[in-house]
């Protein structure tokens, strides 16, 4: 067997992110809402059984220069974990077109890992029954907290725990235009959490109520103005205090009329939700400067 398939690894934003606690092992408990986007990385992968496993990862694309195609890469780790779990020895070639910036809060590395796992399941005709899917989710979680959500085809997911307790959200909404702006430098997730002070319990409960309202709006196809004020990211409390490029970018977006602007994940990307296409394009034109990278997109697998 030898064939090649192409897979798309969608980026994500967090429409909502509250930190609800910290565990003894240092991990933080979250309540978050993922929204996958119609932008992401592109992967081509081929594999055939062999006497021993050999994984070759080649990386190109606008953000590929600073990535190593070795065992430290999540796409490589995902392929290796797949072969180990299924007891398969294979020669595997992966070509990764890295379109998404690094350290951006868009989950692109996690999405790459999940895309590799899904692609290898196709190449080796692995039937994804309930038990096997549960096992794959455990493999994915070991690779990274954001990897499991990308194994699924749905666009919206509510996540709890450290991000591994996932609930798909059925959506009827028409997607607004989503502006994704990268300030030209990444943000470190560990630093974001280290410098974070967790909200009082009463405030957390209020925010969780807002998350539930946000989920309800998406499920019921509410217009942007009915739910956009509910978007929230607790990690802004830490990151915006020391990452000036992110803070300036958010304020500039708001100043240009992007009323609903928010940092995604632990940064450094800031996104804005805009209903009017021409207004969104105008904002994009204004902020494409100072080494920034800007995308205009929409939620994955939704109409605009």
Describe the structure.
The chain is built from nine helices and eleven strands. By secondary structure, the chain is of the alpha+beta class. Strand 9 (260-263) and strand 10 (270-274) form a beta hairpin. The longest helix has 19 residues, at 201-219. The termini are far apart.
List the helices and strands and how they pair.
Blueprint: E1 3-22, E2 28-49, E3 54-60, H1 74-86, E4 90-97, H2 108-123, H3 130-143, E5 156-161, E6 165-169, E7 177-182, H4 189-194, H5 201-219, H6 224-227, E8 232-233, H7 236-242, H8 244-255, E9 260-263, E10 270-274, H9 277-287, E11 293-297
Parallel strand pairs: 1-8, 3-4
Antiparallel strand pairs: 1-2, 2-4, 2-5, 5-6, 7-10, 7-11, 9-10
Helix pairs in contact: 1-2, 1-3
List keywords for this structure.
globular, 11 strands, 304 residues, four-stranded antiparallel sheet, alpha+beta, seven-stranded mixed sheet
Distance between the termini: 40 Å
Fraction in beta strands? 25-35%
Principal-axis shape equals: globular
Taking pLDDT < 50 over at least 5 consecutive residues as the criterion, the unreliable ranges are none
Which sequence of SSEs, written as H and E, runs from N to C? EEEHEHHEEEHHHEHHEEHE
Rg, alpha carbons = 19 Å
Percent range for helical residues? 25-40%
How confident is the prediction overall: mean pLDDT? Answer: 95
The description of the largest β-sheet is: 7 strands, mixed
Structural class: alpha+beta
Q: Could you state the oligomeric state of the chains shown?
A: single chain
Note the total helix count: 9
- How many β-strands, per DSSP? 11
């Amino acid at each position: 067997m030898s064939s090649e398939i192409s897979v798309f690894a969608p980026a994500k934003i967090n429409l909502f992110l509250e930190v609800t606690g910290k565990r003894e092992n240092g991990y933080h408990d979250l309540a978050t809402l993922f929204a996958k986007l119609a932008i992401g990385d592109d992967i081509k992968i081929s594999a055939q059984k062999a006497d021993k496993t050999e994984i070759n990862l080649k990386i190109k694309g606008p953000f590929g220069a600073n990535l190593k195609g070795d065992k430290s890469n999540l796409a490589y780790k995902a392929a290796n974990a797949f072969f180990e779990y299924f007891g398969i020895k294979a020669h595997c070639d992966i070509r990764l077109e890295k379109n998404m910036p690094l350290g951006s809060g868009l989950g692109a590395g996690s999405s790459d890992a999940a895309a590799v796992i899904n692609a290898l399941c196709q190449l080796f005709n692995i039937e994804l029954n309930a038990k096997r899917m549960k096992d794959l989710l455990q493999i994915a979680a070991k690779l990274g907290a954001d990897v499991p959500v990308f194994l699924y085809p749905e666009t919206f997911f509510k996540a709890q725990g450290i991000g591994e307790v996932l609930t798909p959200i059925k959506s009827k909404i028409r997607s607004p235009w989503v502006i994704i702006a990268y300030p030209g430098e990444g943000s470190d997730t560990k630093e974001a959490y280290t410098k974070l002070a967790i909200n009082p319990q009463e405030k957390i409960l209020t925010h969780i109520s807002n998350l539930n309202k946000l989920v309800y709006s998406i499920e019921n196809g509410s217009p942007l103005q009915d739910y956009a004020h509910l978007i929230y990211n607790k990690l802004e409390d830490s990151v915006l205090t020391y990452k000036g490029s992110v803070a300036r970018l958010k304020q500039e977006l708001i100043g240009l009329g992007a009323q609903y602007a928010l940092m995604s994940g632990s940064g450094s990307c800031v996104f804005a939700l805009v209903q009017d296409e021409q207004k969104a394009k105008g904002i994009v034109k204004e902020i494409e400067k100072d080494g920034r990278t800007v995308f205009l997109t929409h939620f994955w697998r939704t109409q605009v």
